[in-house]
Amino acid sequence: MSLIGTDIRRSEDRPLLTGTATFVGDLWREGQLWARVVRSYSPHGILNGIDIDAARESKGVVDVITAADVPDARIPIRLPFAETPQATLALQPLLARDRVRFVGEAVAVVVAEDPYLAEDAAELVVLDLEELDPVADTRTALGAPALHEELGSNVVNVFPMAYGGDVDGAFAAASVVVTDTLRVPRNAGTPLETRGVLADVDESGRLVVWGAAKVKHFNRDVLAGLLELPPERIVLVEGNVGGGFGVRGEFYPEDFLIPFLVIRLGRPVKWIEDRREHFVAANHSREQEHELELAVSADGALLAFRDRFRVDIGAYVRTQGVLMPLITLQQLVGPYAWGAFELDASAVLTNKTPAGTFRAPGVTEATFVRERMIDRAAAELGIDPIELRRRNLIPGNSMPFRFEFGNGAPPIVYDSGDFPAIFAALLERAGYEELRAEQRRALAEGRRVGIGISVFTEMGGIGPWEHARIVPLADGRFCVQCGIASLGQGVQTALAQIAGDQLGVPFDAIEIDHTDTDTVPMGFGAFASRSTVLAGNAIALAAQDLKEKAGDGPLDAARLAAEDIVGEGRFEKEAPSFSFGANLSVVEIDPETGSVHVVKHVVAFDVGRAVNPTLLRGQLAGGAAQGIAGALWEELPYDDDAQPLVTSFVDYLMPTAEDLPPIDVVVLEFPTAGNPLGLKGGGEAGVAGAPAAVANAVADALGEAGAGVNELPLSAARVRALLGSG
Amino acid sequence: MSRADAPYDPPMAAPDGAFTDADAELGVELTLNGAPASFSVPARWTLADALREKLGLTGTHLGCEHGICGACTVLLDGDAVRACLVLAVQADGHEVETVEGLADGEELAPLQRAFHEHHALQCGFCTPGFLMTATAFVRDEPQATPARVREALSGNLCRCTGYAPIVTAVQMVLDERRA
Amino acid sequence: MKPPPFAYARAGSLEEALDLLAEGSEDVKALAGGQSLVPALSFRLVRPSHLVDIDGIAGLDEIRESDGRLSIGALARHAALARLERAGSWGALAAAARAIGHDAIRVRGTLGGSLAHADPAAELPVVALALDAELLLASRGGRRTVAAADFFLGPFTTALAPGELLVETTFAAPPAGARTAFCEFATRTGDFALACVCVGVGPGWARIAVGGVGATPVRAPQAEALLAASGADAVEEAAATAGRELEVYGDRTANEGRRRDLVRTLTRRALAEALGSA
User: Fold this and answer.
1) Where does the pLDDT of residue A523 fall: very low under 50, low under 70, confident under 90, or very high at 90 and above?
2) Helix, coil or strand: residue C100
3) How far is CA B132 from its chain centroid?
């Protein structure tokens, strides 16, 4: 029986269950000092000076640093395809220099004997600020003076994308055109563990940095460059990580400042972000405004669409560059055979926390706006929204399906899968016909029940490559080294299953090591649902290599260890894969208060091949929970003066056990030819279709008033207003 | 660990009836996971920080420090409470149980086994808090209804699982107890 | 988010607490369950110079019923109130306590703490107002009683004078034949209420107290008059009147219209429950 596809219990659990795991906050170094970052309370101003005298004198304080003490450098962009000349003119400095540009921007760091004393001292730092007019939204940004003078504009880049020729003609010929402006609010990944960095110099003089995650090798190289040290002198160590969701692991100012202080002070320094800081300092995401129109024929063929949208990326371009508009563009198309479309995406700067990715970035926003409009079109035509989708999903026998773009841009390729079949599987699992019957009965009783659907294609398994090394051990086991990262998703277990399967050894004979940057010389990390796909295939190649070197017969680890025989594999992947998914949501609305209760939620997803079905279902269910939360409760609004209004869990409303139904998950497997193991990534897909399905369900429950559903979150107040509070 | 062995200069006991200086380190003696323990901290230190930094018991996690996420849940005289909302000095003379006290040597407690069986943890950061909440709940309300189970768990936040496997794990332990 | 520094004293008795409160300057706060005070300290929203810890004082948590009145010591925990008979005279009090936060909050938070903290959105002040509670305040100088209607002066502001501690709250039972209920609207269970209502209705007697819409909990006298006169027949009209007659504020979380709308809905629901037709 193959280990791939088996529900093996996780190997990671015991320390987490017994409280002996080591998250960065749990680590301790002899003589360690505590750092506290001082942050701007103003969203926009000229920083004429910082008075640190009182802070310096405060009890237990060892040092206070400002921009004057650190290099005048900027944090670079990690993704080459998201780096533009304009984007590089809006990068964030290590500490604010002449300007502050968002509430929460780091302006100084206090170092003291304990975190209580550090916080006391940080309050004594005084900023000499000449406040400037704040830019609180993208509309204002368009007409406001440039936040970054060199850039000259608050629009960093505009990315047009067009397909299929005569979009105007398609609209002219359409029977129905639906138009609207749809908004997705600011949200954030909000892992339960905040960020943290602990750094020290070890006996051999190497700088060791704990608290690393996601993209350790890139971060090590950036740090080395900023500190002017050779990369080999630095090691980034990943311990237990309390969730990432896109937010943790990107290179932030603190990832430089803490190691810098260690070198400066000659003592270990520890920084643990508090929750209020996290809300203003760690990446936000999702805030987009789309002007979208769809052209549909009388018999329900989706002809063409146009979308002009703005992504609010906050005050600086951080490590992910202008990724967000690009990645949204790729996923607006969805699983439909459009004749033509015309897209226009811009990344716009505002005086708010910089924005990067949040799980299923781009696809979640795109799916919401597109699937809402598909339902609107269905309503206009008088066609059932399910039927409209059935008519337009790309059929299974059309795979691979390509959208080619003229100007040298890479095509969007759907290489495998059967979208209609997966859609049917969703409806069958949900018991769609019976749900509609129940809805009719509920309506007769005066209860407002709604059913909503969404479909999407999600980009995953992003390259360029990963490396794996399999080292036989004297004790008979095999150590598998690779450069991805764990954010808590159970990747070690899944990779161990692949390794065991490919080597022909038991699961318990495998040890996965991805802990630090020394383990493998280079890795690209964990994001874009790539870890299992890239590392898994690299492990498969390494296993093949080891078996070839070992000769015939079962592998004898001890013998191979004695002979120093090691397997190496490098898996390259040029293009991302796209998988198909669908969601169905059932809601009931309390018409008197507007409260929305999610009664049922089903996620269907094509993962190519499920390595560990239980872990995958856990990822999909957890993702759907986040998506539902984004549809109904979570929001990071700012006021007109660009002051954040939500900076704690008092107002950032994450769902509890009472707020969510059990999420039903249907996993389908249409292996891709794009990699030997046939895997498509699955870590993010749970989120992607959830807000759209919930929004469509709310609109369905609202009846005619549902046409007004074009903005999230669908808070009770918003729903009540749509119902018409009289 | 008795006060005599504590690695500090003889600390001031928290005297009844008189104000101590803000800076003063106050001695705290408590029963921790069934055994005597002590530490000294300034009055403003939370119980969560004292457990983590003074006693090295880092299983109790800080997720928000304002009493909402529940990651810091411990038992105080048998009740599940948020350790970030208890001043460490308030634990003087009381009994505290933390996640480190659940297992019996190598043998996991029923709730810990159930969480593992049902994949009720992913990143694991919220897990100690859930385990302590559930420990008190299962002890105090063995006959709880499914709705009450959900309510009892609604004071702890999880960002990874969507809760269903956690509810299942707790329900399983309740069912086992009734059987 | 660590608390700022403060001088600390633990009181072993009520007398000791009162001495300490008198000694500790204007900037002194009493700490009981800490469920409101400690987060405020962690956010550094308050910076008392002195903290008197009364959490361990014995005998201040008793719940006694006599002559149709319920006297509750200031240190009685919300969890204890939540266990009061739902069907009896104190059902609304039990329901209100149940609605506070989550189990871990209720096992620590106290009635005295909640009333003295006087959060405009809090549940227990609304019940205190509805049931004509009398609050016993003690200081080194003596004792005095203040009616709930005179106790809540503004957001987080009460009639407590410097050096005074709330030691006991006495609720009057509704008249014979009257029923009470409590209802609130919060986004998630346990969240701060956007609005909450405590009602009582009986022959010729009515109470409608509302929280979360103004600086303090308030009564709705016109709506009460309608109810007292016409009982169950006036439920709709009374609810609508309550939604109209009160001074209601609006903010980003809920604008004025939204809060009025909620007051009307909650009043109707609470009355329906009290009258047994929920």
Assistant:
1) confident
2) coil
3) 6
Q: Which residue has the tokens 């360029």?
A: A464
Output the domain CATH number for residue C73. Answer: 3.30.465.10
The domain boundary residue, chosen from B47, B78, B101 = B101
Q: What is the DSSP letter of A703?
A: G
Same fold, A288-461+576-636+644-717 and A462-572: yes
Q: Is B12 on the interface with A (CB under 8 A)?
A: no
Tokens 């004297």 found at = A474
pLDDT < 70 stretches in chain B: 1-15
Does domain A24-134+194-241+248-281 correspond to CATH entry 3.90.1170.50?
yes
- Tokens (6 digits) for A235: 């090691």
For the entire predicted model, the pTM comes to: 0.96
Q: Shortest CA distance to B131 belongs to which of A655, C105, A16?
A: A16
pLDDT tens digits along A27-36: 999 999 999 9
Residue A252 carries which side chain, given as an amino acid letter? Y
Q: Do B42 and B90 belong to one domain?
A: yes
Nearest CA in chain A to B56: A26
DSSP conformation letters of A320-365: TTTHHHHHHHHHHSTTB--SEEEEEEEEEE-SS--B---SSTTHHH
Which tokens go with A461? 């398994």
Would you give the end-to-end CA distance of chain C in angstroms? 44
At residue A567, the 3 state secondary structure works out as strand
Please compute Rg for chain A using Cα positions: 26
B70 close to A (CB below 8 A): no
Cα dihedral across residues A57, A59, A61, A62: positive or negative: positive
Put simply, whether B148 touches A (Cβ < 8 Å) is no
Q: Do B128 and A19 touch (CB under 8 A)?
A: yes
Residue whose C-alpha is closest to residue A609's, from A543, A532, A542: A532
Interface-testing mutation among C2, C10, C44, C191, with chain B (most B C-beta atoms within 10 A): C10
Residue closest to B162 by CA, chosen among A627, A285, A8, A248: A627
Short-list A698, A451, A488, CA closest to A590: A698
Token pair of A269 as six digits: 């320094």
The predicted structure's pLDDT at residue A627: 98
Q: How far apart are CA A13 and CA A489, in angstroms?
A: 11
What mean pLDDT do residues A469-494 have? 87
Residues in chain A, total: 726
Q: Between the CA atoms of B77, B83, B85 and B87, what dihedral angle is there, to the nearest 10 degrees?
A: 80
* CA C35/CA C79 separation, integer angstroms: 13
Is the sign of the CA dihedral A394, A395, A401, A404 positive or negative?
Answer: negative
**Does an H or E element contain A632, and which?**
helix A613-632
Looking at residue A516, what is its pLDDT? 79
Q: Measured between CA atoms, how close is C184 to chain A, in angstroms?
A: 11
Tell me the Cα Rg of chain B: 17
Of residues A329, A296, A310, A292, the one with CA closest to residue A412: A329
Residues B143 and B88 in one domain: no
What gap in Å lies between CA C239 and CA C234, rounded to an integer?
8
Q: Which amino acid is at A314?
A: G
The angle subtended at Cα A584 by Cα A580 and Cα A587, nearest 5°, is 155
| Number of domains forming the structure of chain B | 2
Written as six digits, the tokens of A335 are 């699983």
Cα-Cα-Cα-Cα dihedral of B63, B69, B72, B75, to 10°? Answer: 180
- Report how far residue C40's alpha carbon sits from residue C37's, in angstroms, rounded to the nearest whole number: 5
A338 in reach of chain C (CB within 8 A): no
**CB within 8 Å: C11 and B79:** no
Residue C14 CA to residue A339 CA, distance in Å, equals 80
Q: What pLDDT was estimated at residue B8?
A: 43
Q: B118 and B76: one domain?
A: no
Question: Smallest Cβ distance to C55: which of B20, B46, B90?
Answer: B90
Per-residue pLDDT at A1 exceeds 70: no
